[in-house]
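Re: the 244-residue chain
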Amino acid sequence: MAGIIKIIMNYCKIMKKIPDKFHLQVINLLLIAFIQLPLNAQIPSDYKGKPFYDDTLGFKGPQAIPGRIELAYYDFGGEGVAYHDSTTTNDGAKLNHQCFDYGCHWRPGIPYHIAFFRENEGVDISYTKDWADFKKPNVVEPMVNQLYIGWEADGEWTNYTVDVKSAGRYKIITVYANYDNNSELWLNNKFATKLYLPKNTGYYHQWDQATVGEIEFPAAGLQLITLKYNRGPNLAYFDFVKIY
């Protein structure tokens, strides 16, 4: 908006000799042009990350709100840009290469692309497994092969370029396992809301679902969401449901 105001002020200085009526018509057209501009210039101008996409999964970003934000689909850009992780290895993919007396973590029939999702990046990602996530009592069953972020450590974060279709206030629903970790959501590099996981499920592979917070999007268009988290749960996704 500051740019439009500057243009109008410069116009007023230059075009003093034009009759008032025509002058006002031109200013009016400039204001209309500003109002009609999409309010999508919300992402910080110095942000270098790019929306995630995956041809194998048939997914093209950015993820949309209202809707589901898959937390494993954080932006491209690497350490310090799209995410920060305390280790350089994807500990979920690393574990899925291993076998123990109770079985292998790469389960039969699971595509390589799921078992070792983004394995060359630092964010720790795995998927729900038959013997780990579906043979214990879950309050809410996660989806089969649901990707999630785990092995979380204090001070880690992930960035998501999202396309907000409608401005307004949204509630945030998640499927999670284990206990609260004082997570926060930031919007365009500004604090937006705290997230609270209300119930300790008792284990990393015992899942529940809860509304964990609310967030206000002042404008529609492309936005940058940052999930800041600490040690604690496995987190699968956030559903953003519009309240008003």
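The chain has two domains: 2-36, 53-242.
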